[in-house]
Amino acid sequence: MNEVPWSLHLLSEVLAAFSVEDPNALRTVINRVAEAVDAEVVAILQQGSISHCIGLSGGEQPLLLAHSLNHPASIDLAAGHLHTHWAPMGKDALLVVGRLSEGFNLEERSLLRAMGRSIQLSAQVLQALTAEREAKDAALRQATHDAMTDLPSRSLVLERLEAMLSGGHAGDRVATVLFVDIDRFKQINDVHGHASGHQFLIAVADVLRSVVRSGDLVGRLSGDEFVVVTLTATRQDAESLAARIIDQVSQPLLLAGKLVSHSPSIGIAFATVADTAETLIENADMAMYRAKDQGRGCYACYDRAMRLKAQHRAAIETDLRRGLRQGEIVPYLQPIVALPDRTLVGFEALARWQHPLHGLLPPSEFIDVAEDTGLIVEIDTQILRQSCAILGGWRREHPEHFLRLSVNVSGRTFVDASLPDHVAQALESSGLEADNLYIEITETMLVEDIDSTTQVVERLKQLGIRLAIDDFGTGYSSLLYLKRFPVGILKIDRSFIDGLGTDREDEVIVKAVIGVARALDINSVAEGVETELQLEMLSELGCDYVQGYLFGRPCDARTARELLKSHGPLARSTTAGH
Amino acid sequence: MTVDPKAERWVEVGSSIAADLAAAVPEALAPILAAGQPKLVLLFCSPIHDLTRAAGLVADQIGEAALIGCSTAGELAPDRSTCGGIALWALGGEGFSVTTGQGQGIAGSLRQAASDAAHCLDRLERRAHTVLVLLADGLCGDQMEVVRGAYDVAGVDVPLVGGCAGDDMAMQSTQQIFGRQVLSNAVVAAAISSEAPLGIGVSHCWEPLGEPMLVTSSNGTSVETLEDRPALDVYLDAFDAPDEVRRNQEAFASWATTRPLGIRRRDRIEIRYVSGCDFQSRKLLTIAEVPQGALAFLMLGDAHSVLEATQMACQMACEGLQGAPLRGMLLFDCVARRSVLQDERIQEELQRINAVRGDLPVGGFYTYGEIARTKGAGGFHNQTLVALALA
After folding, report:
1. What ipTM describes this predicted complex?
2. How far apart are CA B11 and CA A559, in angstroms?
3. Rounded to 5 degrees, what angle do the CA atoms B176, B182, B184 make?
4. Angstroms from B244 CA to nearest CA on chain A
């Protein structure tokens, strides 16, 4: 070996181990140092501690520290005398090399010194490059992944799906998108807080990851909307996957100390030749809405009729937004009459769309779209404000009139924490008092959303507002709720009124509801009264108020005002106050 | 009362070339079981056999003895060098203590697997002399990482010996045995501690062909350029390779068996087996790291040098016993060395071994790489004989 000179080539051998691809590069470098000079021990001492070491057990390593002020040193180990050399690595670190057989000669010491300094500089460069690469990776990940769930975001999902669609045949399998939307997710945020909502979404992401096959793509598009992109050979494959997702996501989850269970609705779309990533996801989205229409917690597969329907709905939505801006959504007022003297005591406000092209549109033409898009909250708020303003105006003209106003709100509006503020503003700007106003909700809303509505109801109660329970008798109200909440009116559903005089069971039910109302000191209002016979029977049964076509259809404010004039001044009802 | 020294520590070896394991295992086990209850059995088994069945049959017969092993590219036993057989190497007696371990690697990386396997040292009842025997997958990434991973745990106090499993030169996959389990991409280990000295010998006797060259570009086990020229071209030209070797992978692999690279170390040259090449990118492929920046030699050897190395390694191992009587040897012999000797001269290698061991038991297998760390922190070899002598 003597003919080959000891050479600095070992330095380049050691430094070649640095690689930005290898997070353990420094560990490999230390091995290379040891192998290059036949050392048994190599360590890096940094600010009084050992950051890397090979050759010594954890129990022996402190020996290096003990000698760190006394180098070079010979350290006694069980295996023999360890001859050490210490090469500086910048100000704060030392490269320590130890060999059992013999000490290091001048050439080796010189080589190790060069190694120490070079390793330090290379480590710094590596650190800087690694930090830069990590920052780039993090930026890329931030741009392509959702921070909360770490799932690919919409842009990456579209990119991957597009690549899959343009990638040609995958045997007999086709690209399939499952659009997963959590039913009534907003309630989780409203009831349990946003932190719990985030926790829920993270759990859903985990479930989706665990349910899909390796190679499938799970992404989060926005809010509570997720997608699964997969390849399926048959419709049944996709449906089985959807069923598994529904089953797993529906498992109760502990959030903020409470077990919460929410189902997903899933839309399934299969790629066709003409599909782009965007259209395929849109198709799955439409199918998801079909699943929601079918009762939530289920799945539906896309068909072309859905797109036509969706286009129609989209047109209505655009038009409805415009209509709302233009003030085309107006309250129509249906009279409420007291029994037995048939005096006009107030009105129920109902939304109508005064469309510039199609004329007056009933709620059935736009309420579904309003509910799906969230526009219902704005509609409810406008109807509340406008109808209060109308009655407030009459009140100022005729302070002697005491009129009650019932305003319907949707479930979505009723769980909206800003409802009490809107009510307070409407009262203040119209000059109405709280006991003029009833917020009308359905029995189902009261029971289903009991947790989410408690705070809203409490604030309404503080304002002195009472609730009117619509369609009473069709749901499963607990009488406890009627007592617990500020319920002022029970409205008897028209389906029972229809049967009065013809159906004995309906008569019994109506009687029972009136009885419940009386027992709880609540007024009863019968809806859909159309005949004198019904009126007579309701009067006999002790019903407090009635409304229906017998006394007038919902009408505009001007007509209602005429109606009011024809009835003359009204006094405050003695039975309605609480 | 006199103590039979053999009762304190014993080594025994058995082998068989029977085609049916039902016959082969009992035949190979017979001398071992006759020696007593073993503490450790190493099973070296040709890949023509079902290793799971072989391990099961051995385990059925050895009671509580620990069992590790691997597939081979040939087996070594007293007076016998086989291909397609099994060899069992065992030790027993109160003078030895043994533990075994295993680590499952991931593709391309055995470092952690080697560390995991080496942790069997933690449970070992330590005596005066300790060694860690490693059997690693021979076709799973950079084999240097096996030594590095084991050294992370064993440290300076415990020498390492071992070999990489083979597959009769099919170069497809190798297997490792841990008890009745058969693994792949894994490292299995046996820690042996003895009251008496243990000796390790390493020798290859390959000679450099000309001046060393700088490895100007390499990446792990892929050597891209030597002195800034495509490594394959440098290699083929230096050895004046025939046309067939320059075009055909199989011809190249066979021809390269006796033309390894040598990496210059402080006082020796470490051999790197050239396992293949990439005719397109003109790279040489090795089974252990050739670091960029290293000084590399082109190496040559012949049957004479191989035989010299055999005797030298065995003698070196015995000298390590510090005068204590030899009880047996464990050999890790590179399959490439066997290629040099070929069938007609393989008996000469056995004679060289016999010249050192006398009639004492010796066994081992033909490997895809050899491990011997006795000084420094490295210790992965190719085309080398590693011998462990036990007193």
Report:
1. 0.88
2. 114
3. 55
4. 34
User: Which residue from A13, A15, A56 is facing B155, i.e. has the nearest CB?
Assistant: A56
Give the residue from chain A lying closest to B215, CA to CA: A13
Instruction: Tell me the whole-structure pTM to 2 decimals.
Output: 0.62
- Classify domain A154-302 at the CATH topology level: Alpha-Beta Plaits (3.30.70)
Task: For chain A, give every domain's residue range.
Answer: 9-143, 154-302, 315-471+482-492+551-567
Chain A residue numbers with beta carbons less than 8 Å from the beta carbon of B295 are 4, 7, 9
The reply to whether omega before A340 is within 30° of 0 (cis) is: yes
Q: Which of B227, B266, B289 to mutate to test the interface with A (most CBs of A within 10 A)?
A: B266
A478 — pLDDT class (breaks 50, 70, 90): low
Phi, psi of B36, rounded to the nearest 5 degrees? 140, -170
Q: How many CB atoms lie within 10 A of CB B22?
A: 9
Contact list, B267 vs chain A (CB under 8 Å): 1, 38
CA of A36 vs chain B CAs: smallest distance (Å): 6
Residue with tokens 């895809």: B368
- Please compute the mean of the pLDDT values over residues B252-257 and round it to a whole number: 88
| Tokens 């103590």, located at residue | B3
What integer is the mean pLDDT of A302-328?
90
Residue A569 has pLDDT above 70, yes or no: no
Query: Which pair of tokens denotes residue A326?
Result: 């233009």
What average pLDDT does this structure show over A486-509?
A: 88
Whether domain A9-143 has CATH 3.40.50.11030: no
The CB density around residue B161, as the number of other CB atoms within 10 Å, is: 26
With the CA atoms of A21, A25, A31 and A32 taken in that order, what torsion angle do they form, in degrees rounded to the nearest 10? Answer: 70
**What's the fold here for domain A315-471+482-492+551-567?**
TIM Barrel (3.20.20)
Out of B156, B265, B268, whose CB is closest to A40? B156
- Mark yes or no for CB contact A31/B295 under 8 Å: no
Backbone Cα Rg of chain B: 20
* pLDDT tens-digit readout, B175-216: 999 999 999 999 999 999 999 999 999 998 888 988 899 999
* The pLDDT value given to residue A576: 37
CB contact under 8 A, A55 and B269: no
Query: Does residue A449 register a pLDDT over 80?
Result: no
Write the pLDDT tens digit of every residue in B86-95: 999 999 999 9
Size (chain A), residues: 578
